[in-house]
């Protein structure tokens, strides 16, 4: 689909902000899939058991309201593309839409408006940087999985003749370095510093820059990179601070909270929440040092129908979750390679199995080992069985492998934060931010 950016400003009349001085800088953070069960679960997961009081987390400290998330149809349940389009353009669209309306025409995003106003702009994600949420801030496409076309937009859709995003950090170099087009070379020709080694993140010391650190997305936090978002956030704020004369706009996404929710993997989800929480703390610290900055945190939707307690049992065992050292898929792979099944299980989960559970797990491992393909039903069943054992031991419940329509949290801090209090539609969050940017 051919796109052209609508340069004229979009009018947002429903939530105009009167008599509120605009912040100079805006930090927008989206926890993909992060419904209220995730923020509550993280509170109990992080609780110090030696104290009587359950300590607040950063999510509790900055909480100001809740947001509705439905898309522009009768499904009620949004996907990440429609959710991010609403959060970036203040316009509801259909599931799968990347900053286009229901007629598949481009919608001007707040990042594009920010760039047109002379602000420095940035996008950061733990998914591929052209995934649905970051894409909805800088690209336009009728379908979220057109990854190559979306990546092309990061070069092709310009604002006043300039590239729209001054800093891009995430995964996805397979979509930017292709046989048909080498976008990284085009970024370099435009004066961007390029880095592909995450260990060299700190060598990015000036803008514009692009860091694509994985072929697609980062590994789960629990499996390899426990602080990748918070590390990228810290480096991002350092870079933006050097370029804040005219203000900046940055969107940072905790992408894989959603993916752990889809997988119904509670230990995976809590590790992603921890990385996101630490990134929010870095953002709050920046606001404390730069009081002309606004921080807004929300989610596009909730994923998995997570419940803290299940099966009629009034308990949720965070000590069990804390003992799990890898994602369900990684644990399954370790079991298949192991010569001592129970020892490996104990090492990876710290969960004691009874005799029947141990025998059933052993049978599933043997069946999976005997299948030749890496993507066979037996291997998938083993992964699901591993996660089921963890959910059962921790008394965690899940209602779906998809999304739900439950309202999601809003957090806000800094200059203008009071505007986000209460119960808002996701488009209202965007409208308020866009009005600030346009002032």
What does this protein structure show overall?
With 439 residues, this protein is α/β, with parallel strands linked by helices. It is 40% helix and 16% strand. The protein has a ten-stranded mixed beta sheet, with helices on both faces. The protein has a two-stranded antiparallel ribbon with strand order 4-5. Strands 11-14 form a two-stranded antiparallel ribbon. The two termini are 33 Å apart. The relative contact order is 0.19.
Helices and strands in order:
Layout lengths: L24 E7 L4 H11 L11 H4 L1 E6 L11 H10 L20 H7 L3 E9 L3 H7 L8 H10 L1 E2 L2 E2 L3 E5 L1 H4 L6 H7 L3 E3 L13 E4 L15 H14 L6 E7 L1 H7 L3 H24 L3 E6 L3 E2 L3 E2 L9 H5 L5 H10 L3 H9 L5 H15 L7 H18 L1 E2 L5 E2 L3 E7 L7 E4 H13 L1
Helix pairs in contact: 1-11, 3-5, 3-17, 9-11, 10-11, 13-14, 13-16, 15-16
Count of discrete domains: 2
Overall pLDDT level: 95
Strand ordering within the main sheet = 7-8-6-3-9-1-10-15-2-16
What ranges have pLDDT less than 50 throughout 5 or more consecutive residues? 1-16
CATH architecture designation of the largest domain:
3-Layer(aba) Sandwich
Distance between the termini: 33 Å
CATH fold call of the largest domain: Alkaline Phosphatase, subunit A
User: What gyration radius follows from the Cα positions, in whole Å?
Assistant: 22 Å
Query: Using DSSP, what is the number of strands?
Result: 16
Strand content: 15-25%
The CATH C-level name of the largest domain is: Alpha Beta
Number of helices: 17
Largest sheet composition: 10 strands, mixed
Helical content band: 25-40%
Structural class: alpha/beta
Shape: globular
CATH superfamily of the largest domain: Alkaline Phosphatase, subunit A
